[in-house]
Specification:
419 residues; alpha+beta; Creatine Kinase, Chain A, domain 2; 9-stranded mixed beta sheet; two-stranded antiparallel sheet; 12 helices; 36% helix; globular
């Protein structure tokens, strides 16, 4: 994901007014239906289809939520839509420190011809010309994805081939956190649907092929404060430093939210790893859980959070990351872990890692991550105990569903989770 010297500004749009204004542009000569969509704890996208006329009537009701029938729904809370990320302390960060966040996402996925047997839609190198030859189905799919995102209002930054079999990456521009995740969910649904329309399967599974890199979801996060003035070139600001320190401090427990199922940890093992197994960071370091991108360009400098994949609920995952960073800013936390540069911490000996303060291991399994998360009282208190209890209960159920899926080799993620 590249955004050098391109300046983006955080502008938070009121959700309710946005809904009303958008409804005015839905009038067309032909029938229009509205897909009312939501995402559950397991990142299963669910929806119901409403007629445009009924949807407009619902918008006129004096209630902040949308009720689609008269049946009691006990597992949904009718509340301020921005409370989805309220625990992030986003408003407190703005009030106390004048901080705004911008978030952009880079999604990796694989296009498959079939799942039984597992056949990728091509083999290529990263950014290879032959991966997008004119007239091929894959090229058509990727072009249609780009066109569809553009027409729906999601600004595409770039797309290109990755190293794995049939693997591609789509990057969208940074937005305010909630808008960014909304756009991400729409992007993933667009990828799935267009691939399906052209006879392919889009898989976001963490690792499909043992001997190739897995699929990740990279969150690019920048921290902007009106209180710090201009950022120094080639040097992190105090808020940026503390934000990074907070994330690294809570990272071992945090990955319960960002790598929520057992297969997620396959990206951390094997001959080809996508994530380091140690708590570390580095400037332009691809293997570290957190990297710093474009450090010499204050306008586009950002953190790349790589310990994340598409099995995670992105609202919850981003909330956890921003909460962890906020704790660092709130306490003025110092960054003790040194920049690893382009070296994977796992390649260093224990003495060198200790000298860099990069000798703390990350959990290597779903069970170990849960155990560490339970011990992180700070993270739990900011997320809210009620949320933590419900999330851990849901998280306990879903990994066992993946056992049979892994035996048969990964197919479509949502199909599995909806079983």
């Amino acid at each position: 994901m590249t955004s050098k010297n391109v300046v983006y500004v955080s502008v938070q749009k009121p959700v309710s007014s946005s809904l009303f204004s958008q409804s005015q542009h839905l009038k067309t000569p032909y029938p229009v239906y509205i897909r009312l969509q939501w995402v559950d704890f397991a990142n299963v996208v669910k929806f119901r289809v409403l007629s445009l006329s009924y949807f407009e009537k619902l918008l006129q009701e004096p209630y902040p939520g949308v009720v689609i029938n008269n049946n009691p729904i006990t597992d949904l809370v009718n509340t301020d839509l921005f409370s989805i990320l309220a625990a992030v302390k986003q408003r407190e960060a703005k009030t106390e420190f004048g901080i705004d966040y911008l978030v952009g996402f880079e999604t990796e996925f694989m296009l498959l011809q079939s799942t039984e047997p597992l056949v990728a839609a091509g083999h290529h190198r990263s950014s290879a010309f032959r991966a997008l030859l004119t007239g091929t189905v894959v090229t058509t799919v990727m072009q249609k994805i780009a066109d569809s995102l553009r027409s729906s209002g999601v600004e595409l930054m770039s797309y290109h081939a990755k190293q794995g079999p049939g693997q591609y990456s789509v990057s969208t521009v940074p937005l305010a956190p909630l808008e960014a995740v909304d756009a991400l969910v729409h992007t993933h649904e667009t990828i799935r649907n267009i691939a399906s329309k052209h006879g392919l399967i889009a898989s976001f599974a963490p690792r499909l092929f043992p001997e190739s890199a897995g699929n990740g979801l990279h969150a690019h996060i920048s921290v902007h404060s009106t209180q710090e003035g201009n950022k120094h070139p080639d040097k992190l600001s105090q808020y940026e430093t503390s934000f990074l320190a907070g994330i690294l401090d809570h990272l071992p427990g945090l990955i319960t939210l960002t790598l929520p199922i057992s297969p997620s940890y396959r990206r951390m093992r094997g001959r080809i790893r996508s994530i380091s197994t140690f708590v570390c960071w580095g400037v332009e370091t691809r293997g570290a859980p957190v990297g710093v991108k474009d450090i010499g360009s204050p306008s586009s400098r950002r953190f790349e959070f790589r310990a994340l994949d598409c099995t995670a609920n992105p609202y919850i995952a981003l909330a956890g990351v921003l909460i962890a960073g906020y704790t660092g800013i709130k306490s003025g936390q110092d960054l003790t872990i040194q920049d690893l540069g382009c070296i994977d911490a796992a390649e260093l000996d224990e003495y060198t890692r200790e000298a860099l303060d990069a000798n703390r291991s990350l959990p290597l399994s779903w069970r170990e991550a849960r155990s560490v998360f339970i011990q992180d009282r700070v993270l739990q208190s900011l997320l809210g105990q009620e949320f933590v209890t419900e999330y851990m209960r849901a998280n306990m159920v879903f990994p066992f569903s993946f056992f049979f899926f892994w035996q048969a080799i990964w197919t479509d993620l949502n199909c599995l989770l909806s079983m």
